[in-house]
Amino acid sequence: EVQLVESGGGLVQPGGSLRLSCAASGFTVSNSYMRWHRQAPGKGLEWVSAIYSGGTTYYTDSVKGRFTISRDNSKNTLYLQMNSLRAEDTAVYYCARDQSGSGYYYSDYWGQGTLVTVSS
Amino acid sequence: DIQMTQSPSSLSASVGDRVTITCRASQSISSYLNWYQQKPGKAPKLLIYAASSLQSGVPSRFSGSGSGTDFTLTISSLQPEDFAIYYCQQTYSTPLFGPGTKVDIK
Q: What pLDDT, in 10s, does the model give residues B87-99?
């Protein structure tokens, strides 16, 4: 059974750092397309970052240079290192596995989410 | 950049109603369109991918159609567990979700 379990969220001051983890089971992270999405309180969904099986990484413009996506193949875990955090980064962060076929991508499994609050 | 809109932003319906939600892209995205359902406090759930393909395990009362710029999610007979927010998502370029459509009880 595929499972994704996020951890690492919490309260952090503006300018601070946090590292989110997403422990996967039931599939191999290094063979998969993985994404982080987020949802600000009461708002819609926003894609944040992705890492493809070959290791190529992608970021939405608002987090480029501040966030880093990575994975630990030995732990089958996805990470999101978040630096220089801003109030507007406050959100529930979800990791997700992407499936792909014929060029189509879709997040078929999601974790339960972890809340990041950036506030002084 | 591609913009996504959804209509209506919210609707009230009764159990058994046929419900249609529209998603529009600002330029053609072929069939690179997914639909998700989200209930309060829960992660989104994939319903439809590639505009019209039903995700495994999703009830057949859900269907998707469209290509290019205009897409539709239809629930043929609304069930109590279907009251939720529905998001479309384009993956033709940088992934972008629509603003969502809230379906609640009339």
A: 999 999 999 999 9
